[in-house]
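Hi Y.,

Following your request, here is the sequence exactly as I used it, all 798 residues.
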Amino acid sequence: MKYILTVLFLVQYLLLTAQTHPNNTIKGVVTDIAGMPISYASVVLANTNYGVVTNGDGQFSIKAPKGKYTLQISFLGYKTYQKLLEIKEIENTPIKIVLQEYKTNLDEVVVLGKTQATKLQESAQTVSVIETKEVKLQSADLGEVMAKTEGVSVQRVGGLGSNIRFALNGLSGDKIKFFYNDIPLNFTPYVFGIANVPVNAIKQIEVYKGVVPIQFGADALGGAVNLKTPTIHNGWSGSASYQTGSFNTHRFTVNVAYANKNSGWFVNTGTFVDYTDNNYKIDVAIANEQGKLQQETVERFHDRYKALGGSIKTGIRNKKWANELSFEGYYGNYDNQIQNSQSPGLIDYPELGIDKAVAGNPFGEVVFTSFSQGVNLNYNVNLANKWEVDLKAGYNYNESESFDVGTNQYNWYGEVERINNQAGEFGEDDHLITRSNNYFVRNQIAYALAHNHKLKLAIAPTYVYRTGDDLLIEGKFDPALDKGYLADWVTGLEYSGDLLEEQLQLVAFAKNYRQSIRIESIDPSVDGLQVNEREVNNYGAGMGLRYFWSPRFTTKLSYEYAYRLPRQNEIFGNGQLTGKNLDLEPENSHNVNVQWSLTGKNTTQINWQVQGNFFLRNINDLIFLVTNADGFGTYDNVWSANSQGIELGGQLKNIFLKGLSLKANTTYQSYFNTSDEGPFASYKGDRIPNEPYFFANGGLNYQMNNVIQKNDALSVFWNSRYVHPFYIGWESAGLAKFKSETPSQFTHVAGITQKMNIKNMQTALTLEVQNITNAKVFDMYGVQRPGRAFYVKLTTHF
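Below is the corresponding structure, written out as C-alpha cells. Let me know if you'd prefer a different format.
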C-alpha cells in the first residue's frame, strides 16, 4: 500500500510540474452582486486569441505575454464587463470582478451554463445526481425516487414509515453512509431512515458509488448518499406541499427562508408532518374451522405511522471573515405500530386456491418510537487567496423505545383469539429504552496549489456514548445498562487537478481509519466494574480519473480500498436478543468503477444521452448477524464476497413529439459468497441470499405548455419498475422446488400534473395512481406492499 501511495503522489507531482510554464498570468474570480461565483462566464483579452471560461468556483487564469489589454467578461443575463489592464509580471495580483444583472424582463431565457448537478456528474467522482425539481411534485417518497436510479435497490417491509433496506451495487445497511448537506443523516430530524425524509425539502440527491470523497470524513464500504437542500436566495423564498390519499395518508411540508443582501443575515426554517393508517388490503392464509388453510383478503389493522419534526437555521454569509457562519437546531419524533415480523412467511399453493398469501400471526400491540434532537454548526471561510476552511460540528441526542408486553394473540381480522401465558408478541416481552449522545466534527482545509489544482485535508472525529434501560428488569442484572463508548476518527488527504487543458481530471486520496471502543458493565458473577477496551487502526487509498474524449463522450475510472468501521449497534448489541462483540473487525473492500457517458448534440430537435458503469466490489470480513435456534445472536465477521455487475441507462427528449421524454435503466449484479472458512464456507459460490440481482426502471413524461393560461404546463407521466425473483436462502441449500423465493415485481405509476403561476407563486396540482394493476408486491419475503392507491398533492413555491 505504501508503494502505491508513493507512486500516485509522484505521478501527480510530475504532472503538476510539467504544466507550470514560466508564462505571464492574470488570475481572478467572477461573482454576482451577492458574491456567488459565476461559472462558465467568457473571459477574453479583447482582439487577441487569449481567453478561457470560468470554472465551477468562478475562477479564471489567462497566460499571455507582457503588455496592455482590454479584459472583457460576458455571461448570459449580465452586462458585459470591460477593463483596461497591463500584464507586467509572471504572477499578477488576482482581481475580483462583479457582474451586474440586466434588469430587462425577458419572455424567454435560454440558460447556456451548466447546472451544479451537471458539473458534479462531469467530475472524476463516480456519482449519479438526481434532481428533484419534477419528482417533488409527485407523491413518491424519497425511497421510491432513489429506487429509480441504476445500481440502487430499495426494499421495504410495508408502506409509508416502514423499515427499508437500501442497497448500492449489492451492498446494503450500514455499509452505505447517508448525509444531509454533507453532515451525517443521524445529526438531523430524520433518524428513522432516508425514505422518510420529505422529498419536497430536497433539491438534489447525490449517489456516490463505491468511492467516497474525503469531504464527508466517512468510513463507507459501498458508497454514500448526500441530500442537498435548495440554495437560499436574497429576500423571501419558500415552498409548501400537502398530500392526501389512500389509507388515510396525509403528508405536509413547509420551508420558509429569508436572506438580507446588505447585512448577510439569513434564516431558514422547515417542518414536516406525516400520518397514515397503512390499512391497505393483503392476502393471508388463514385456517378455517376444519383447520384447512384458505386464502382471505383482509385489511392491516395495526400499522399506523406518524412523524413530525422541524429545524431552524440562521447565520451570516458573504462576509470577508466568513462565506457562511450558521447554527441549526432540529427535532424529530416518530411513532410506528408494528403489524408483523419482517419475514412472516409466504404460502403459494395454487392447487389449493392459495396464491402468494402471507403466513404467520399478526401483531396487535407492538409499538416502536424514537425521537432525535440536536444542534449543528457550519463555518466556511477563504483565508487569503489560496486557503479555504470548512468546519462542521454537531451534537445529537437520540432515544428509542420498543414496547411489546401484550399477552393477547390476534388474528388477521384484528380480533383477540386467546390470551398467552407469556407476554410479548415477538416471542419475549420487551420494554427497552436506548439512549445515545452523539458528537461529530468534520474540518476540511483546502489549499490551491495552482489554477485548478487543489490539496485537501479532512479530519473527522465522531464520538458516541450509549446506554439503555430494560424496564422489565427490576433488581436483577440488566445488560441494557451497560455503558458503551465509541470513538471513530477518519482522516483523509486528497489531491485534485485538471490537466491537458481540463480534458483530464485527476483525484487521488489516502485515508486513515481509527476506532476506540470501551464497554463498562456490571456482571453479578464478578466483583467490581468490568471494563473492556480495544483500538483499531487501518489505512485506505483511492483515485479517480475523468477524460473528455470529445464534448459529448466522457469516460471515468475510479478505485478505492475502503474500510467500514463497526457501528454502535453491532458492537454493543441491544441488551436483549443481540449480544455485544468487542472483537468485531472492520469490513474492507477493493472497489472499482469504469463509467462512460455519450450525449447527443444539444439542439432543439431530439436530445439523447446514454451511460453505463461496470463495477467490482471484492469484500472481506463482512459483518453479519449470526443467530442461534433461540433467536439470540451477535454480529461477527463471517464471510467474504464478490459483487460485480453492470448498469446501463439512457434518456430521450422530444422524440416523436416535442415535450415527450423517455427514460430507462437496468442493473445486473453478481453478488457471490467467496468464504473459505467460517459458518458459511459450505455455501461458497452461492449468490448472497435475499438480495435482488436484476432490476430495471422506465418512465415517460409528456409536457404541454400554455394549456389553460399563458406560461402554464400540463404534464402526463408514467413510471414502471421490474424486479426479478430472488431466493431468500442459500442457492445450494435444498431442492429448487422447495426453496423460498421472493416473487417478481412489475409495477406501474401514472399521473397528471398541472403547473401554473398564481399571484407570483408557482403552483402545481398532481393526481396520481400508484400500482395501477393492483399487483401483489413483495420487496421482502412474506411482507406484502400496498396495492392500488390514489393520491392528490398540492405544491407551491415562492
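Confidence is low (pLDDT under 50) at residues 1-22, 103-113.

Thanks again,
Q.
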